[in-house]
Automatic annotation (TrEMBL), chains A, B, C, D:
Annotated region of DNA binding: 38-57
Organism this protein belongs to: Krasilnikovia cinnamomea
One Pfam short name: TetR_C_24
Keyword Transcription: yes
UniProt keywords, alphabetically: DNA-binding, Transcription, Transcription regulation
UniProt cross-references to InterPro entries, sorted A to Z: Homeodomain-like_sf, HTH-type_TetR-like_transc_reg, HTH_TetR, KstR2_TetR_C, Tet_transcr_reg_TetR-rel_C_sf
Gene3D superfamilies, A to Z: Homeodomain-like (1.10.10.60), Tetracycline Repressor, domain 2 (1.10.357.10)
Keyword Repeat: no
Name by which UniProt lists this protein: TetR family transcriptional regulator
GO molecular function: DNA-binding transcription factor activity; transcription cis-regulatory region binding
Domain (HTH tetR-type) ranges: 15-75
DNA sequence: TATGAATGAGGTTTCATTCAT
DNA sequence: CATGAATGAAACCTCATTCAT
């Protein structure tokens, strides 16, 4: 019954299922929030039985934490790729571009972040804080390098600025996608860039 | 039928209760979100019995909607007071100041707005949209006056800019209060103003 | 404050209130049943405040029991008036007529009786049983007199027949009022009489 | 996807549960009425957890509506079987017999019908009206056939008579079971038949 | 005599989680 | 690897009753 040569197929199938569950969950949570999204909803949208959610994740919270980790890991990677080998000011521009691109592709995830990031007292707050730190640190390192090299203003408070930049990028992009999706990306990017240059 | 002073006393008592419920609810929802906040929690914090919540509001959702309305009405009023009789660029600065001041005083309400404003598919989405429109329209009118008088750039897309300004003010202020509350207001206001001036 | 000469007016006012509450309650309970009818409903329909219900009756159940008593007392009286001084067969006919007349005037009360009379396990079951007994005993006495005088069949089981007659009169009349109110009373009475004569 | 015998086993299990819930509910509602019967009561008597009630029925009301449908479908079927192939007067007698038999077997359901059928303004009134129509139509068809063939009086108002017959059968049978269960069926049936023959 | 705000026990309903298949 | 019936704790909400005015 559990023959070795099918293990691969099974693993793949399982990965598929997890992926489907991630996608279903991220959409629903973006729309309604974590608490308002039921495991039934998720299973229904992912087209699996409810038990399958628990076969693949320890709990609803665990599913959500994996989701956050997965998403932010990806964002961090894209941030790192964007700045790699670029001089400070160019790197900052590349970060803005990368963030915008990411949010465009994963709008639901971005909405979800915007909703959860500035709350307090939730189970996963600790996890989220750590993950936030991880993504923002790429921005911070870039700004710090700019300050060190003299390309950016010496008085810049790097920690504060990175945090704000991340936040501003998030709202502006999400606001765009939700309330004026007909606007071209380039325009939004230009607007964002103007803000960022001024602020740094 | 009933004597006036009796009715008055009763009305006042009831208004007190509603106010207490609003305060309890706004804090809890800011911390945990709407769905994660129970009516028991709210009643407990407001120091009334659970039934009292339902005597004063038709449902948990209705309480939340009144809360939103109440908060945004106040914000709108403060916006209006801020711009009254001021020339365009000064009016914009006054708006930023007013928003910051409001958020500082009603941090919980601001966190709650940040969490709910860019979602989709919640019961009160329609209400929220209208309320958002109401607050943002003050910004829009101000910007429009500036464009008309030549004080602001003619190419400015007023609708888009008002929406973005509102959002940016919200994240920056909340990010400040949540992650670096030790920073002085003036500094945050300066930073925000720099962004805004650049963007308009 | 409590001067003697106004006591009369007060009593009258109170009686008015009770009457209004009875009327409101009987209608609502006929429509929805006792448990589904709330004290709020009753107060609303009687156009008094909720507290007034409790000022006039000890409890919701007490109000209902008084209602039952009041209604059945009246029915019993009308039964007694109908049979008074009549020979057996004529008395039976008069009873049928009286019951029909009563139900026509107090349709709600009749619906309510039909709904409650053949249940078990309700708080007021005991009260209701006694009241039922009281009304039915008039029928039983009449039938017994008929049997004794030889006007009615000797084999007639008086207890059983009175019970059945009461029930049949109730359903037939209520069914008429609810499902074919356009039919003339006389016709219904003729139909009912045919049944009764045959059965006795 | 799932093997057939698994699905079957599951279906059977679920049907069992629903049946148990129907039985528990019908008894309790007959005793106390719909509103006074709690979901806890039902679950307790059916020996399932409360959640199971809601896994199987959308709401307490939905459970009750399915119950009504289920019961009246069965009664209708027995009515149809009773009249099948019989000449008019014999068919009428068979209907009376069938109704009595049904009520004897499902006393609770009959009590519940008697309590609900002549009310107004309840959620399920519409459903009940339709179901009532369905059962009564068998009686009406039978009477109509009798009138057409000349076996029954030509002046008979078929609609009114069917309705009344149904009602009279119900009260008489329930009155018997509740207040003089010691009486033999045959006697009750004879009494009922006398009424019916006279009325038709 | 009447009022209506407030209460809290208890009702209906939801939902994360378990488990036998 | 996946299923879906069942569970029960905990959520939302209702309502008979109390009480200060």
């Amino acid at each position: 019954m559990t023959e070795a040569h099918v293990a691969d197929g099974r693993t793949r199938r399982r990965e598929d299922t997890k992926q489907r569950l991630f996608e279903a969950a991220v959409e629903l949570i973006a729309e309604q929030g974590f608490s308002a999204t039921t495991v039934d909803d998720i299973a229904l949208r992912a087209k699996v039985a409810k038990g399958t959610v628990y076969y693949n994740f320890a709990s609803k919270t665990a599913l959500f934490e994996e989701l956050l980790r997965h998403g932010i890991d990806q964002l961090t990677e894209e941030f790192r790729a964007a700045v790699a080998g670029r001089p400070p000011r160019e790197a900052v521009a590349a970060l803005v571009h990368a963030q915008l691109e990411f949010i465009r592709r994963y709008q639901s995830f971005a909405q979800l972040l915007l909703s959860e990031m500035w709350r307090s007292n939730r189970e996963w707050q600790q996890t989220l804080l750590l993950l936030r730190e991880q993504a923002i640190s790429v921005i911070a390192e870039t700004l710090q390098a700019g300050v060190d090299s003299g390309d950016l203003r010496a008085e810049l408070d790097v920690r504060v600025a990175s945090s704000a930049l991340f936040g501003v990028g998030l709202v502006v992009a999400v606001d765009w996608l939700v309330f004026s999706p007909e606007r071209p990306v380039e325009e939004v990017e230009r607007g964002l860039m103007a803000i960022v240059q001024r602020a740094t």
